[in-house]
Amino acid sequence: MSARDHDAAQLQAELAQRHAPDPRFHFDVTIRFTDGTYRNKVRARNKCVAHAMALTDARMASPCSTFYGKELGHLVELAKQDQRSPAP
Predict the structure, then answer these.
(1) 80 Cβ partners below 8 Å, 6+ apart?
(2) CB 71: neighbour CB atoms within 10 A?
């Protein structure tokens, strides 16, 4: 491999790292509402995104439309499978 080819390959590798998608993790989300408790597993970049996705799912995708009450609190934890090693 010539020096020029080596430099081109190194540049491509650096560009690939810069444009790599953010790692996603599995979170266990629990949201308490006045009308019940919603639990789900969500794959997201961080806890805030996981909470927002679960809240949207609870409010809009619930089959029986039960979670329309006030949100009393939430708990977002990294799933046990991701505590050992994060996804690339």
Answers:
(1) none
(2) 15
Q: Two tokens at 56?
A: 């949207």
In single-letter form, the type of residue at position 11 comes to L
**Identity (one letter) of the amino acid at 68?**
Y
Q: What is the pLDDT along the chain (88 residues), one digit of tens a residue?
A: 577 676 777 767 776 666 656 678 999 999 999 988 999 999 999 999 999 999 988 888 656 667 888 899 999 999 987 555 555 5
β-strand pairing of 36-44 with 25-33:
antiparallel
CA–CA gap between residue 61 and residue 52 (Å, rounded): 13
40 - beta bridge partners?
Answer: 29
Tokens 């919603």 identify what position? Answer: 38
Q: What is the pTM of this model?
A: 0.65
Residue recorded with tokens 């050992």 = 84
